[in-house]
Amino acid sequence: MNELGPWPNKRFGKAEGAEYVKFIVETVKPMIDKQYRSLPDRDNTAIMGSSMGGLISHYAIHQYPDIFSKAGIFSPSYWYSKRVYTHTREYPLPKTARLYLMTGGKEGKDSSDDLKKMTDRLLAQKHP
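and the corresponding structure tokens:
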């Protein structure tokens, strides 16, 4: 939990998610772009995950909008830290960023409510 958590959590302890994303951006992606025939520009770079992976993908695109232009955010664990809402406000996305947010109807009311709250936040920022 703490490896993918971008902010500290009383239950799970120290957050290591920021370091995880930094490792992807500064080490993994450059290695892939150097070793393989990739299209390394922002327009061709996406990140995605589910549950805690959805949360860290949400964090990543907001923290590194110059690296990622797209994010698949599936069943995000927004419950982990309400800081995700202020982070979204503090690091608005370029209008060209594309997000795919999804949660299942049987994941519980909290999950659906959190996703709706985030969607409303993004729409309030005039994100298309």
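(Above: one complete record from the training split.) The chain has a mean pLDDT of 95.
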